[in-house]
Amino acid sequence: MRRDPHGARVDLSGLIDLHCHVLPGVDDGAADMADSVAMGRQADADGIAMICATPHIRHDHSVPIDELAHRVQAVNREYERAGLRVRVVQGGEVSEEDARMLAADELEQLALGGGRWILVEPAPGPLSESLEETASQLTALGFRTLIAHPERHLDSQAPDLLARLVQAGALVQLTAQYLAEGHPAAVSELAERGLVHVLGSDAHSASIGRPVRLTQGYERLAAVDALARHIDWIKRRAPQAIVSGGAVKAPYRSR
Question: Of 8, 23, 210, 226, which is least surrounded by CB within 10 A?
């Protein structure tokens, strides 16, 4: 157990949800604190020990970055009152455009768990060289890029672009529920090419949409031959390293 730079307790022994819209009333995520607590109950039931709060940082949401630490603390207080084990740490889901416009001190407040990894949301449509430019700029500022839900942007060119990003130091996050619903074939090429690194729930509410749940996604991923023997790294060691702010080296090569 340790504390992140914003004061939240961080349990690195359990599962970590790197992508979750759990903060109430800031974007299109949890509607209110009751919804956020219900999301925490889902996380507890799934063995998730830590949630990275990742509100949308993009043009259609006015998220006050300088208030995020206070909002995270408020959720953790409610979780303690509710007797929940899971704790929330600071982060953000930053659009590839906004990531290029934010100052370094703002990016520091959006890094997952107070580390150096920025969860970057690709622009709508196919992945493009703009995403590479964003990752390059983040690297120049001392940050690393975690690419959110590329399964929404797959076309014939996406694997090659993702391979270039990974070879330059980025990592790739798939959505757990997407896999749980039975779509491993859609990401088989990414897996075979070593372009899958971590999962996130991308949950927005406890009552509708994707749940705060990771285990079913890991079970599906474990059935993909190329990744089966690396599930412990994907499930635990990579997320732990990301929120600790350290270097992350996959035990398999991307190509």
Answer: 226
| pTM of structure | 0.94
| Burial of residue 200 (number of CB atoms within 10 Å: 0-12, 13-18, 19+) | buried
Quick check: helix, strand or coil at residue 197? Answer: coil
Q: What is the pLDDT of residue 61?
A: 87
Question: How many Cα atoms sit within 13 Å of 53 on the Cβ side?
Answer: 34
The structural domains of the chain, ordered by start, are 2-244 (3.20.20.140)
167 DSSP assignment: H
Res 6 pLDDT > 50: no
Which strand (E) or helix (H) includes residue 52? strand 48-53
Burial code of 31-56, b = ≥16 C-beta within 10 A, e = fewer? beeebbbbbbbbbbebebbbbbbbbb
| Mean pLDDT score across all residues of the chain | 93
Rg of the chain on CA atoms, in Å = 17
Helices 68-81, 33-45: inter-axial angle, 10-degree rounding: 60
The pLDDT of residue 10 is: 53
What b-and-e string marks burial along 156-182, b requiring 16 or more CB atoms within 10 Å of the CB?
A: eebbebbbebbeeebbbbbbbbbbbee
pLDDT one-digit tens code per residue, 195-210 = 999 999 999 999 999 9
Q: Are 20 and 52 in contact (CB under 8 A)?
A: yes
DSSP-assigned beta bridge partners for residue 10: 2
